[in-house]
Write a structure and sequence with these properties.
Elements lengths: L33 E6 L7 H14 L4 E5 L5 H5 L9 H4 L19 E2 L9 E4 L19 H5 L9 E5 L6 H9 L2 E6 L6 H17 L5 E10 L5 H16 L7 E5 L2 H9 L11 H15 L4
Parallel strand pairs: 1-5, 1-6, 2-4, 2-5, 6-7, 7-8
Antiparallel strand pairs: 3-4
InterPro entries: AAA_dom (IPR025669), DNA_Partitioning_ATPase (IPR050678), P-loop_NTPase (IPR027417)
Protein name: AAA domain-containing protein
């Protein structure tokens, strides 16, 4: 299922909505409303897969989860089979023509459910659309904080908010990092580059200094790591993983996601790991551990 662009030629900002009541289940964990961004300026490293499968694991534990899709390719939106309504990321990041500012709290109007017939109940999505690419060329003094403004009050409704960032370091990614509490970097060891790490580190340092001093570096998630029987491949993987630990200017734990067949199938078919029986159990346990890491212990 592919997310569709909205009919208008240009996005228009939604109005500020009435506040929704607090859903049941929110507040079961010690860090409710935690906002975690998954980043890398390279595409195809597993950011969307990581985002969606952690969301599914958290929802399976009874958590209320929101996925914010900031990538104009709309992969998280389509994987979760969410049907965009009138508003998407493009609209909530569009400034009000009267004030020139983002509309506080307007993101509530863009929230839609994931397909609960396929995915665990409790996952909502702020979908993306192709029009979001227009936001990369926005001007204005507040363009980097529009997501935070639009999402006022949203964190009160969820146990966990996951942001799938685009494979670039433009306005959309900066908005996501400005709104996030934590950034986890997703890499594939054989595609990892120190030059790219330096650029991302510089961007994060600038955001910490100017926009979001509370942003913390969480973990490096090394996706699709081949630790099979080939000794040479294992040695290369270990070397790259050791390099990754310090490449971002500070020590970050490296969490190894192995190359699992079920994860590849889940990605290709836009399905949760529970659909793949026995071969899905080991990766499901890994994603469950990541959900617990981000949720914190039950309160």
């Amino acid at each position: 299922m592919t997310a569709t662009a909205l009919p208008p030629e240009r996005a228009a900002a939604p109005p500020a909505p009435d506040r929704a009541p607090l859903p049941k289940g929110v507040g079961r964990y010690k860090r409710p409303g935690r906002r975690v961004a998954f980043a890398n300026q390279k595409g195809g490293v597993g950011k969307t897969t990581t985002t969606v499968l952690i969301a599914a694991a958290a929802a399976s534990r009874g958590a209320r989860v929101l996925v914010i899709d900031l990538d104009p390719q709309c992969h998280a939106t389509s994987t979760l089979r969410a049907t965009p309504g009138r508003y998407t990321v493009a609209e909530i990041l569009t400034p009000d023509p009267q004030t020139g500012d983002a509309v506080p709290g307007c993101a509530h109007s863009a929230i839609v459910p994931a397909d609960a017939q396929v995915w665990p109940a409790g996952i909502d999505v702020i979908p993306c659309s192709l029009l979001a690419a227009e936001r990369e060329t926005d001007a204005g003094v507040d363009r980097e904080i529009r997501l935070a403004t639009a999402c006022e009050g949203v964190a009160d409704l969820y146990d966990l908010i996951l942001l799938d960032l685009p494979p670039s370091l433009g306005v959309l990614s900066i908005n996501g990092l400005t709104y996030a509490d934590e950034v986890d970097v997703v890499i594939q060891p054989h595609r990892f580059g120190v030059d790219g790490a330096a650029k991302l580190s510089h961007t994060i340092a600038r955001i910490r200094k100017r926009l979001n001093p509370g942003l913390v570096m969480g973990a490096i998630i090394a996706a699709a790591v081949d630790m099979g029987d080939d000794r040479a491949k294992r040695a290369i993987a270990r070397e790259r993983l050791a390099e990754a630990e310090t490449a971002y200017g500070e020590h970050m734990p490296v969490l190894v996601m192995r190359r699992w067949e079920a994860v590849n199938k889940a990605t290709d078919r836009a399905l949760p790991l529970s659909h793949f029986g026995a071969i899905g159990r080991e990766p499901a346990e890994w994603f469950d551990s990541q959900a617990l890491r981000l949720l914190g212990e039950a309160a």
